[in-house]
Specification:
Helices cover 41% and strands 20% of the residues. The protein is α/β, with parallel strands linked by helices and 365 residues long. A 9-stranded mixed sheet has the order 7-8-6-5-4-3-2-1-9, with helices on both faces. It has a 3-stranded antiparallel sheet with strand order 10-11-12, with no helix packed on it. The longest helix is centred in the middle third of the chain and has 17 residues. The protein binds iron/sulfur cluster.
Length: 365
């Protein structure tokens, strides 16, 4: 089986913390969709396997009309697809739009809620408010969506533990099946980082951020969610198949500007420029960068992706490639990892410093 990721890079306006590839040139949506349709038609058989998961991510896919979503999904063909996810912005949601998405074949929504608190949403430059976020979930449920994920952010400036806990409680009351949750990152070059550097806002203390994360993990576990990846929580049977496939090295075809593909051991990626992408596709001359993954790349990827999940990485994989067995013992002694049934898994304490654990276990060429 294979997956297909489609990148929809349009945003009505940029959020202050965002460093993703996206553009506010909304007037170019139609030519972009035309290019997408052409690329899908040319590449949909590339993995040599049926496409079981489809993911429309962004940017903001809900900046496209439902007729364009319909054209995209019809061109891919959804007969074999078990999971068709679309990221949506609460500010774009209407009852009618959600009904149309369901009719088009979208069967899973990822709603970019981030927080239900209006002051915090304004502070990070989101265009929706808390009521719109709540309505988006209710209306999606009314439209027949029974597989809904919401994104929640913690460690936002001015977000107290009480505010964070009330966001989690509200998410649980809404009855969603999946929650993805990320701590705010101050990425280089973003407006939020400039505001921090000028002293216009105070980042949340690292200990408080860790407490917020621990609370999230504990509360969602109590509510019956499985913590299956460092940032992802799902009710039984509702883990995101598409994202889980990334972690399992399942082939995927990336369509659209900036999208990455992995077929066998070859990774390739489209240019992350709207102009280059549209011109290249329409002229049948798009240049895709590509690299063939060697044994070290594959090992590093297993470490990087596997340790993020609750299945961890096979100890044998690490032992075969990693020269210093003392390191695992040391990490175990520091309670950063456990070794269970032949697998190395990050502990809750280890999840706080996961990037450092991963860096230590990765190897240079
Ligand atoms: S909507 Fe998403 S992609 Fe667009 S600017 Fe905001 S965070 Fe970035």
């Amino acid at each position: 089986m294979a997956g297909m990721y489609l990148h929809i890079p349009f945003c009505k306006r940029r959020c202050l913390y965002c460093d993703f590839f996206s553009t506010t040139q909304l007037h170019r949506r139609q030519e972009y969709v035309d290019a997408l349709l052409q690329e899908i038609a040319e590449r949909k058989e590339e993995a040599g396997e049926p496409i079981r998961t489809i993911y429309l991510g962004g940017g903001t896919p809900s900046q496209l009309d439902s007729i364009d979503i319909f054209r995209i999904l019809r061109t891919i063909g959804t007969d074999d697809a078990e999971e068709v996810t679309m990221e949506v912005n609460p500010a774009d949601m209407t009852k009618e739009y959600l009904r149309e998405l369901r009719q088009c074949g979208v069967n899973r929504l990822s709603i970019g809620v981030q927080t239900f608190k209006d002051e915090l949403l304004q502070l990070i430059g989101r265009r929706h408010n808390g009521i719109q976020a709540i309505n988006a979930v209710h209306w999606a449920q009314e439209a027949g969506f029974d597989n809904i994920s919401i994104d929640l952010m913690y460690a936002l400036p001015q977000q107290t533990r009480t505010l964070w806990e009330s966001d989690i409680e509200l998410a649980l009351r809404l009855g969603v099946q999946h929650i993805s949750s990320y701590g705010l990152m101050y990425e280089e070059g973003t407006q939020l980082t400039r505001m921090r550097d000028k002293g216009e806002l105070t980042p949340v203390d690292e200990d408080v951020e860790n407490e917020m994360y621990d609370y999230l993990c504990k509360r969602l576990k109590q509510a019956g969610f499985e913590h299956y990846e460092v940032s992802n929580f799902a009710l039984p049977g509702r883990a995101a198949q598409h994202n889980s496939n990334y972690w399992n090295h399942t082939p995927y075809i990336g369509i659209g500007a900036g999208a990455h593909s992995l077929i066998g051991n070859v990774r390739s990626w489209n240019p992350d420029s709207l102009d280059k992408y549209i011109r290249g596709i329409l002229a049948h001359s798009l240049h895709r960068e590509r690299e063939t993954l060697g044994a070290t790349d594959i090992y590093n990827e297993q470490i990087m992706l596997g340790l993020r999940t609750n299945r961890g990485v096979e100890e044998a994989v690490i032992s075969r490639r990693y020269a210093d067995p003392a390191l695992l013992l040391e990490m175990e002694k520091d309670q950063l990892i456990t070794r269970t049934a032949g697998r190395v898994i990050a502990t809750q304490k280890g999840l706080h410093v996961l990037n450092r654990i991963i860096e230590k276990l990765m190897i240079d060429e």
